[in-house]
Amino acid sequence: MPDVLVTRRMVDAAMAALDGLGTVEVYTGPPTAMPRAELLTRVAGVRGLLTVLTERIDAELLDAAGPDLRIVANHAVGVDNIDIPECTRRGVLVTNTPDVLTEATADLAWALILACVRRVAEGDRFLRAKTPWIWDPRMMLGHDLHGRVLGIVGCGRIGQATARRALGFGMRVVYHNSRPLPPEVAEPLGATWRSFDDLLAESDVVSVHCPLTPDTRHLFGAEAFARMKSSAVLVNTSRGPVVDELALAQALRAGEIFAAGLDVFEREPEVEAELLDLDSVTLLPHLGSATVGTREAMGLLAVQNLAAGLAGSRPRNLLNPEAFTG
Ligand code: GLV
Ligand code: GLV
Questions:
Q1: Which domain of life is it from (predicted)?
Q2: Beta bridge partners of 208
Q3: What share of the chain is helix, strand, coil (3-state, %, to 5)?
Q4: Which domains, from first to last, does the chain contain?
Q5: What's the complex ipTM?
Q6: Is 286 a catalytic residue?
Q7: Which of 7, 151, 238, 299 falls between 20 and 30 A from 170, CA-CA?
């Protein structure tokens, strides 16, 4: 029986760091998530589980693992795939990989913002299609960023890093959080709190950085798009289900908003067919933290958390301290 199950192969440095953690099994199947039935079988008796965001960690899985499971170390900052209260009830520690991916994810949010406002991917597709063209003052016009307003929905670490970059583009920042940021955090960003509805009405670019919870599921639906400016852009690098993809496709088609950039999807890895047909949408395959340096740091941090949990010490990124008995 293995001590540790790893549900997706990580970068080499992180795989090497697993040495010394006992018998480690790694899912090496095709480029799909580990089939649920296989996961439920292979998890039996393990003490540590290193997961990625496609694995649902719920009561059924915890039952299949059995009483020896000490820790679930998620190789992600988002933990919407894990039922944390259920883990806590069973004394199973849960960790994530915050901080190390903050800057890379903020960079990617900006890649999408620029792609959307200046039609970067659309222009690339246009040339690849060998469309005849000549420079034209009216061709493929986008929007200015300078002097405009960036609205951050969910202004945590990644939201703040995204806001910081706006200063270099000459933008003003508004944000929506359930609670306003402390002044020492908000002031250097020049960021002002707004209600969700006011942020939608005022922003030229809306960038989403909130976690997926029952409250944020479909936060962006028909009503939200109707409140946005017709020249506005929506970028989502958080979790797909925060945006209602069908409503987004309808809003884009109706000209209610100008463009959207999505790194994450409602039924990932599936992409809503209605979106694939729209030139005003820029799509990326969940690349927020996908840099060489960041993926190494995430993998090493996940392994470090796993090792601490197995050794009975307190992991650095423990999310349910109630489950830690010391
Ligand atoms: C990736 O989406 C993460 O949550 O780290
Ligand atoms: C999300 O958890 C963040 O780091 O902003």
A1: Bacteria
A2: 153, 236
A3: 35, 15, 45
A4: 4-98+292-323 (3.40.50.720), 102-283 (3.40.50.720)
A5: 0.74
A6: yes
A7: 238
